[in-house]
Design a protein that fits this description.
The chain has 356 residues and is an alpha+beta fold. The protein folds into 2 domains: 5-71 and 179-350, 3-Layer(aba) Sandwich (Aminopeptidase); 73-165, Elongation Factor Tu (Ef-tu), domain 3 (Beta Barrel), CATH 2.40.30.40. It is 25% helix and 27% strand. It has helices at residues 5-13, 22-32, 150-156, 181-196, 217-226, 271-284, 300-303, 331-347, and strands spanning 38-41, 47-51, 62-68, 73-79, 85-90, 101-106, 112-119, 142-145, 162-165, 170-172, 175-178, 203-209, 230-238, 258-263, 288-292, 312-319, 327-330. The strands form 3 sheets. It has an 8-stranded mixed sheet, sandwiched between helices. A 6-stranded antiparallel β-barrel has the order 4-5-8-7-6-9. Strands 10-11-17 form a 3-stranded antiparallel sheet. Helix 4 packs across helix 8. The model has no long low-confidence stretch (mean pLDDT 94).
Amino acid sequence: MAIDFDLLKRLSETPGVPSREERIRAVIVEALRPLADEVRTDALGNAIARRRGRDGAGPTRRVMIAAHMDEIGFLVRHIDKNGFVRLQPVGGFDPKTLVAQRVQVHTSGGETLRGVLMPSGGKPPHLMTPGEQPKPPRVEDFFVDLGLSGDEARERVEIGDMVTLDRPAERAGDKIIAKAMDDRVGVFVMIEALRALRGHDVEIMAVATTQEEVGLRGATTAAFGIEPDVGIALDVTLAVDTPGIEEPDRITHLGKGVGIKVMDSASISDPRLVRHLRDLARREGIPFQMEVLPRGGTDAGALQRARAGVPAVTLSVPARYVHTPNEMVAEGDIEAAATLLARYLEEAHSFDYTHA
């Protein structure tokens, strides 16, 4: 399976923070439409693609796949008299990675304005006294310098406008570095798995969810309405296989395959699903890693709580530098995730998840 880098790049670079997903949703719907029997958007903005099961296959099991389309970013909360823009974060950033980053302000008038992100009160080194240490920045301290006067900024920017990081997706060796791999790469895996399907009996509901970064909101409402029999979340996970990190804390390794999640702080994966995916990966020669994530969660936390409960699991794409402007993923891990999902969907009808 060759990576469609152009599509992944477009998914990464299209803006869409929680509650402002309309631009990225349009890209996803365009990609899903040829792969589905129908595509619709629900009240919370989730893009829902349905593929019917094989005719004559008997009672149809419904499998819901969830990959969130929102990215961490900001909303404008204030524009001061000098034109500096103050921000409200939507999603969790590590503030030390934000200093002097370029950002884009996407205005309600359709403009994209470029600016520099800086913490207030920050001194250049030329003004520091010997031994003076800069204060660690807080996310709420940051402002955007658009290079505009106060009047110009207030004329063109409104409270609530979306602000995203300004980073292109680029290849680095056999890796890809980009903003918003969390979780545009999960959306990409979902699309690629649908492309790779050779046939299936189950009904597939492929959902690009909204507002995951602020509490799994889109997946919660989508799962309630869809009533799946099985839920599979697609997301990134930590690959902390970098200098200075002890082996038990690395979670996964970049380039060693798809992560099959055992648990995180939002869900414990159904052990039967975990076992089936592990055995299937071994049988098909798909590289995989077993994953336990001490903190953090995915849409699986919403899927398994839908209505009377749903067996759920997460398939993860390992990523270095998660929630920074430069998230790094490996092409081989993306391929492994899409292949494992496709092979699972082809035989998902044969697994019994009812408790005796």
